[in-house]
From TrEMBL:
It comes from the Bacteria. This is Glycosyltransferase family 4 protein. Keywords: Glycosyltransferase, Transferase. InterPro entries: Glycosyltransferase_grp1. Gene3D superfamilies: Glycogen Phosphorylase B. The keyword Transferase applies. Residues 398-420 are annotated as: Disordered. It holds the Pfam family Glyco_trans_1_4. GO terms for molecular function: glycosyltransferase activity. It is an enzyme of class 2 (transferase).
Length: 420
């Protein structure tokens, strides 16, 4: 059974969960055709990401002429379908922040995707994120490509659901995946109650074998690690001020930041102004092995996010038997239990974050190990990549065997739906 995975930029250092999902599906016998609009514009440090890049078909590399030819071909094969797709692209573009012209580009990309799915025998398309990848999957289906589904992660989709035509994408999809109960609740606000059953929860997964023998909590001075792209929503700009406060009561506390991004310069400046450079290590991006090593050296993970879906690094830290200090937002409390597997603080509250950092620093090693063990048990029960991929596989099979609801129009020269 062949599934087309439709993505915007793939692979990316922060999207290793997609790679894990794809490979888990392949272990279950699915054949996955990776289709991305573009390649990453940052170096791929992880060998797994480089392997994925070599296996990915990049739509925009085909060139404008090829995309226009594909658009013309699909219009000739199914003119009514193409007319409907054009009208839909214009309608979505009118309400979108990126405009109609960008949606005409999505239409050409969708034509290319539809032709590739027909050529490779892909029976279903699945997109990650409710942004342009889901738009391409939807338009491809309307013009005659396979049925589609998509996974919504947040927070971007929840910030601008109307601009993204999220309700339209959900209504036309075979099903929509949320990665948490919180995410499902937000999606349920956008569509009528009779469509709620088509919003399903499939967690992002970890590979337990990579965390088979977690290192014990180290001795020595307390050490926190923060992992993520340096952008506003991740909240790393809270850390210099919070660490400066925490050092008053925990003067040997150290913080390692793993990642990079547009806020790196501002973060470095705030660290310098706070005078805490000797207590902070900026480690840049690390591959998966490097992240596991950083977690092994740390006493806990700190995640000061303002907006999230359900962070992968929280799952990885818990699998590595490390307590987690995180903000009480979105899906995070579904995994992090305050006082049991870590600590939860209000987002944006520097004083509360600093106080919690001090609590981590003063927690006895044995208590940290007990919290880490509880977190490990919880995450392995809820986020095993193979178990979660099996849920997704069942949804694909269910969609593929669902009767057609949109028969081909009389103006089309071929069948309008490739699903059996």
């Amino acid at each position: 059974m062949k599934i087309a995975y439709i993505l915007n930029t793939y692979p990316q250092p922060s999207h290793s969960f997609i790679r894990r999902e794809i490979r888990a599906l392949e272990r279950q016998g699915f054949e996955i055709d990776r289709i991305a609009m573009r390649a990453a514009d940052v170096p791929l440090i992880d060998a797994g990401d480089r392997e994925e890049a070599a296996r990915t078909h990049y739509v925009l590399r085909a060139g404008a002429l090829r995309l226009l030819r594909d658009l013309a071909y699909m219009a000739w094969r199914a003119p009514r379908r193409m007319g409907a797709a054009c009208a839909l692209a214009r309608r979505c573009g009118a309400r979108s922040e990126v405009g109609r012209l960008r949606h005409m580009i999505y239409l050409a990309e969708a034509a290319h995707v539809a032709r590739r799915c027909a050529a490779t025998g892909a029976l279903h398309a699945h997109a990650h994120f409710g942004t342009n990848a889901a738009a391409v999957a939807m338009l491809s289906h309307v013009m005659g490509g396979p049925r589609y589904s998509f996974t919504v992660h947040g927070p971007e989709e929840f910030d601008a659901p109307r601009s993204l035509s999220l309700a339209e994408k959900m209504t036309r999809a075979a099903f929509t995946v949320a990665i948490s109960s919180y995410g499902r609740a937000q999606l349920s606000r956008l569509v009528p109650h009779d469509l709620w059953a088509r919003i399903r929860i499939v967690h992002c997964g970890i590979e337990p074998e990579l965390f088979a023998a977690p290192a014990p909590i180290p001795g020595g001075p307390p050490h926190l690690v923060a992992i993520g792209r340096f952008v506003e929503q991740k909240g790393q700009m809270m850390l210099p001020g919070a660490l400066r406060r925490a050092l008053r009561e925990a003067p040997d506390l150290h913080l390692t930041l793993i990642g990079d991004g547009p806020l790196r310069g501002a973060l470095e400046a705030d660290i310098a102004v706070a005078g805490i450079g000797g207590h902070v290590t900026l480690a840049g991006w690390q591959d998966e092995a490097g992240i596991r090593a950083a977690l092994a050296r740390a006493h806990a993970l700190v995640m000061p996010s303002f907006a999230e879906g359900l962070p992968m690094v929280v799952m990885e830290a818990m699998a590595a038997a490390r307590p987690v200090l995180a903000t009480h937002i979105a899906g995070t409390p579904e995994l992090v239990q305050d006082g049991v597997t870590g600590w939860l603080v209000p987002a944006g509250d520097e004083a509360a974050l600093a106080e919690a950092m001090v609590r981590v620093a003063k927690t006895p090693q044995g208590d940290l190990e007990e919290m880490g063990a509880a977190g490990r048990t919880r995450v392995l029960a809820r986020h095993d990549a193979d178990r979660e991929a099996a849920k997704l596989a069942d949804l694909f099979r269910e969609a593929l065997h669902r009767p057609r609801t949109q028969p081909p129009g009389p103006g089309n020269r071929t069948a309008s739906d490739t699903a059996p």
